[in-house]
Task: inverse folding
């Protein structure tokens, strides 16, 4: 018997037993689709977190007040008041920190901005001119405030896209007066939209000179919340980190890093912490997916076992008219392959479409279908279909023709 | 006449758990080409066991079975499949048609396993025509009467032009009209020179044969004479009388 002949027989059997074939394919389909969707969700969450951390800026280090020993990242961040404008000044690029490109302190608070009759509650961020570009904001209109305006505590503001929309609508904001918590400012620029990163809308902010924020709106606490430091390149981040550490220890008159009353976080630190969380999530979803794959496989096996009596008679008849064992094995192998490949392909399609649909509905977390999961699901499900579909029939083919015929 | 089948002290035991059933207890047999042999015996006497061994569906526990002089008891599985495919046509009491295949597809099966590609459908159609069910070629077995199904089965058994046609109670599931048609068909085939081994426990059915072998409790009790071919099936009265011999 030629392979073409075996294929024809297998296809006829598949067509004639539409229900059995359909259920087998369904089992494979569900398994594959589940793996793809669940891994896509986990993956989507991971990418989302990574994007929002990346969205902080490029090659950034963020200095937080507070010591690692008194609670570290989780508790102490930002709770102590150990960073000053003078510290930030000391960190500005110089011979002691050749791997630093730019520095800006940050103060921030929630304010109400008003333009004409419209008002909008937003975040006020006070900093130095490099802050915007360090954090990957680009200007859509107007300009950033200048060092002179920082030195003069000029009341000028650059609006995030969300704020511009809500206060001005279609009117061009540049040159317009606004008031921030009652203090008049002039809009000098508008940022281009940066998009949502995670749960934070990064376009919902007003950026003003550090001095103006402190003098007119947020008040002088004598401290800044953070200091942003940008390294000259991705490769120089570790050097920048140790340079910044050394300068700040000196500034705070501390002799050893163990005494540090500040912490330096790189994007990589944050990313690593977040990745371990989302990795656990992905693992969990993957486990659920693996279970559905198994359940699908058991479904396939059930169908095969139920039909094995019927198959045994078929085997007996075929053997009686001259089929060799290898002819039957070829037929069953092709049958199982066709069913699992079709089921697997339908599962990939279903999983892909379901992931897309979920992305539409869920909004923030866009499931990201990963090639690896598709491959894994396809391999496992086709394997499951082959093993469970082929094995019972192959066993039946080992019977003597007479035993196969006698089975009722 | 050339000897076609030969059994030498054939024993067949079945095991069911620890119990051994001796279905055949040392059978000697010889059948020439062109004979129409009826195997008779009560239910459970070993008739089907005998025919299954002749058909190479099963192998003897002891003893030798020679088909056209060749000892087939020790052949490997693929060789036995080839023998079943080309040299033996099998007809069962329960038809044993593939329920998911049409009459034509059922008849095509032996041709497929014979590796024939050219003219396959024509040959299968010819076989259906020869047994008078060509007009049912595209029907599934469930859409055919018992007599029609058995004729499809006979067409399938004949399509590869085997040396020998084995029929295990072929009329057992049929009404008398269909039985008569099937028996006439077998007689016609015998008349055309085919060797036929027919199993039955119905004396009327056995009356169509040229020789009767009686079997009881796994032993041949009467092998009958090897009748001359001219007499075979020609004269019913004669064959009826023959069944009484010895
Ligand atoms: N596969 C089998 N397993 C166990 N016993 C069997 C098997 N086939 C037949 N037998 C037994 O062998 C004996 C002969 O059976 P069989 O050849 O079918 O008789 P017949 O066809 O003459 O009615 C019976 O006792 C039957 O129960
Ligand atoms: Mg029987």
Result:
């Amino acid at each position: 018997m030629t392979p073409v002949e075996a294929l024809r027989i297998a296809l006829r059997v598949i067509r004639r037993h539409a229900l059995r074939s359909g259920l087998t394919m369904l089992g494979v389909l569900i398994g594959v689709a589940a793996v793809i969707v669940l891994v896509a969700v986990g993956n989507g969450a991971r990418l989302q977190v990574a994007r929002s951390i990346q969205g902080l800026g490029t090659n950034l280090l963020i200095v937080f007040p507070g010591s690692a020993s008194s609670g570290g990242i989780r508790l102490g961040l930002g709770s102590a008041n150990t960073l000053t404008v003078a510290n930030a000044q000391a960190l500005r690029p110089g011979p002691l920190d050749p791997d630093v490109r730019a520095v800006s302190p940050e103060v921030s608070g929630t304010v109400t901005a008003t333009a004409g009759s419209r008002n909008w509650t937003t975040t006020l961020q006070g900093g130095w001119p490099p802050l915007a570009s360090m954090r990957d904001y680009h200007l859509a209109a107007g300009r950033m405030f200048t060092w002179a305006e920082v030195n003069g505590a000029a009341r000028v503001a650059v609006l995030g896209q969300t704020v511009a929309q809500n206060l001005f609508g279609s009117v061009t904001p540049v040159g317009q007066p606004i008031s921030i918590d009652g203090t008049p400012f002039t809009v000098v620029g508008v940022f281009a939209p940066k998009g949502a990163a995670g749960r934070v809308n990064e376009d919902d902010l007003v950026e003003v000179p550090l001095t103006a924020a402190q003098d007119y709106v947020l008040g002088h606490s004598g401290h800044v919340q953070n200091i942003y430091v940008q390294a000259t390149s991705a490769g120089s981040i570790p050097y920048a980190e140790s340079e910044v550490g050394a300068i700040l220890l000196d500034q705070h008159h501390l002799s050893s890093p163990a005494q540090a009353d500040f912490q330096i976080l790189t994007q990589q630190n944050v990313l690593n912490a977040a990745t371990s969380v989302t990795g656990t999530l992905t693992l969990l979803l993957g486990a659920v997916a693996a279970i559905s794959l198994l359940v699908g496989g058991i479904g396939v096996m059930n169908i095969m076992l139920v039909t094995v009596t019927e198959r045994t008679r078929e085997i007996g008849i075929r053997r009686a008219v001259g089929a060799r064992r290898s002819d039957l094995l070829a037929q069953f192998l092709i049958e199982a392959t066709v069913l699992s490949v079709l089921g697997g392909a339908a599962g990939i399609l279903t999983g892909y479409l379901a992931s897309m649909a979920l992305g539409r509905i869920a909004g923030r977390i866009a499931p990201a279908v990963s090639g690896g999961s598709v491959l894994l699901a396809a391999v496992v499900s086709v394997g499951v279909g082959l093993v469970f579909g082929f094995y019972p029939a192959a066993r039946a083919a080992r019977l003597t023709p007479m035993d196969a015929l006698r089975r009722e | 006449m050339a000897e076609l089948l030969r059994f030498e002290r054939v024993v067949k035991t079945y095991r069911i758990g620890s119990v051994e059933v001796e279905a055949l207890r040392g059978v000697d047999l010889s059948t020439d080409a062109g004979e129409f042999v009826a195997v008779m015996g009560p239910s459970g006497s070993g008739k089907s066991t005998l025919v299954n061994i002749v058909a190479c569906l099963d192998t003897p526990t002891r003893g030798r079975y020679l088909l056209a002089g060749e000892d087939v008891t020790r052949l490997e599985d693929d060789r036995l499949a080839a023998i079943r495919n080309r040299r033996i046509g099998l007809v069962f009491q329960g038809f044993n048609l593939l329920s998911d295949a049409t009459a034509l597809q059922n008849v095509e099966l032996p041709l497929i396993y014979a590796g024939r590609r050219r003219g396959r459908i024509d040959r299968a159609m010819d076989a259906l025509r020869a047994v008078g069910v060509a007009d049912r070629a595209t029907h599934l077995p469930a859409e055919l009467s018992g007599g029609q199904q058995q004729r499809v089965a006979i067409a399938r058994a004949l399509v590869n032009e085997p040396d020998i046609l084995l029929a295990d109670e072929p009329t057992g599931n049929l009404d008398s009209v269909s039985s008569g048609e099937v028996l006439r068909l077998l007689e016609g085939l015998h008349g055309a020179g085919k060797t036929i081994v027919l199993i039955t426990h119905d004396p009327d059915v056995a009356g169509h044969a040229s020789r009767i072998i009686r079997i009881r409790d796994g032993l041949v009790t009467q092998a009958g004479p090897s009748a001359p071919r001219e007499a075979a099936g020609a004269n019913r009265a004669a064959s009826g009388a023959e069944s009484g011999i010895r």
